[in-house]
Amino acid sequence: MAEINLSRLTDFLRVVRAASNWYDVIPVVLRLQRKVIVNFRNGLRFYYVNDLFSLEHFVEQPYRLAQVRGRIVVDIGAFTGDSAIYFAYRGAKKVIAFEPVQETYRLAIENVKLNGFRNIHIRNEALSMNEGEVFVDSKIQNHHSFSLPSRTSVTGVKVQTCTLSDVVSELGTDEAVLKLDCEGCEYDLLLKSDDQTILRFEQVILEAHSGTGSLVKRLRELEYYVKVMDIKGHEISEEDTRALALLYGSRRQ
C-alpha cells in the first residue's frame, strides 16, 4: 500500500508542475472523486483518474526525436490516448492508435474528444501476428502494462486482433511513423513481420522491455539509423544492459 501511495504522490507532484488547476486533483488522489479534468499549461486537457494517468509525454517527452509533423503515426499501445494526443499536438497529419483494454480505450476516446482532435482514430484492437480475436481480462489493475500473450483470458472481453501488415495496407505512404509501447509485443511485431511491412515506416520508436540487442540488429539489417535511449529519451550506450530502454530508428540519418 505504501508503494502505491508513493506512486500517486509522485504523479501528483508532476501534475503540480504541468497543470494550472493542480489543486482539483486532490479529491481524486484522496479517492473522494473518481476523475477530474486537468488543464495543462500548454492548453491540452486530460481526465485524471488514479492509476490511469501519465504525464511522461509532456514532461520528459521521450518521443521527441520522432519527426511526426505532416506524417501518419501508428500508435500501438495507446493507453489513455496521451501519446496519440502528443503526436497530434506536434503536428501529425493523422494518428491511428490501438488500445486493447476497454477501460483505457474508453478514457482515450474521452481525452481525444476533450481536446477536439479529429485526426486521431482510436481502435479497441490488439496487434498480433494473426488476425482473429482474444479475450482480454477487464479487471487488469495496471492497464499501462498490458502484454497480449500474458494478459489474455478465456472469460474477459472479446477484442479483435489485426496484423501489422493489415495496418500498413491502409497507410498509402512510406513515410509513416511506428510507435510501439505494448509491453513485449514489440519483439514479435518487429522480428517476425516481413521486411516490406517494416519498411513502410520511415521511423520507428519503441519501448523495449527485455533488452534492445535483437531489435537493433533487425532495424540495422533494414538499413535504419538507430539510437538507444533511456526511458526519458536520453541517448545511452548500446552496451548498456538495462532491460527497459527506448529505441529510435530512422531511414534518414
Explain this structure:
- The chain is α/β, with parallel strands linked by helices.
- It has two domains: 1-49, no CATH class; 54-250, Vaccinia Virus protein VP39 (Rossmann fold, 3-Layer(aba) Sandwich).
- It is built from nine helices and 13 strands.
- The chain has helices at 2-18, 26-29, 82-89, 102-115, 148-151, 164-168, 185-192, 195-198, 213-221, and strands at residues 35-39, 45-49, 72-76, 94-98, 120-123, 125-127, 132-136, 152-153, 157-162, 176-180, 201-208, 225-229, 245-250.
- The strands form three sheets. The chain has a seven-stranded mixed beta sheet, with helices on both faces.
- β3, α3 (82-89) and β4 form a beta-alpha-beta unit.
- The longest helix has 17 residues, at 2-18.
- The radius of gyration is 18 Å and the shape is globular.
- The model has no long low-confidence stretch (mean pLDDT 89).
Topology readout:
Blueprint: H1 2-18, H2 26-29, E1 35-39, E2 45-49, E3 72-76, H3 82-89, E4 94-98, H4 102-115, E5 120-123, E6 125-127, E7 132-136, H5 148-151, E8 152-153, E9 157-162, H6 164-168, E10 176-180, H7 185-192, H8 195-198, E11 201-208, H9 213-221, E12 225-229, E13 245-250
Parallel strand pairs: 3-4, 3-10, 4-5, 6-9, 10-11
Antiparallel strand pairs: 1-2, 7-8, 7-9, 11-13, 12-13
